Amino acid sequence: MRQNKIIGKCNLCGTVKKLCKAHIIPKSFYYGLRKNNEIPYLYSVGLSIHPKRIRVGIYDNNILCLECDHTIGKFDCYAAELLLQPSYNIIDYKDEKFIKIDTFNYIQLKIFLLSVVWRASITSIDIFSSIYLGEYESIIKAIIAESKLLYDEYFSCILIKYDSELANNIPNPEMRNFNGINYCRLRMAQYLFIIKIDKRPFDVEFIKYIMKPEKPLMIVYKSFKNSSDYKNLIKNGVDYL
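Now predict its structure.
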């Protein structure tokens, strides 16, 4: 349904002004899903929402002013430029495959990931209803507003890219818990992003996968057809296949 522009309080700067059409999933990642001019599917995991086609992406006219949307957009553009490349350097390391990017801006990529989770948490759109950040929402808001990583250890990130274009679909992000650690599971394009939202550290076995500053970016490269995401795609009956 079309949303009219309104005057309201921006969730980032707190100013009452005209709000804009702010995408929750960045447009650059959404348009990467459009293949042969087909309209991508949005489907849910664990929510009673039927799969549906979305023409213009997922946006909310009630959360951000234009200036703040542009601020966040700079992080979106950086992530798209870094992650949506036509080819990658894939390496084998200890019986696993990784995409290795030798140099990247850790702060910009981290804030990008946190900004998507934050946008999902403040919107009232039903597909994002499971994203609740609690006390961490205000911390992430400050990180975005100040472009500075505060309490960085709370928000460790693991990046995974699937090996198939079949992964080009849009399931809803989810909050999950593993061994008592809360994290957000976010899918965009062929990527799966694991973003810890917890003061406690990940278990030791995950440390080697965590994105680190001043190190190459190591993205786990995995088979989509062997993943739980592929099983959920089939379960939801999406005729994308």
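The radius of gyration is 17 Å.
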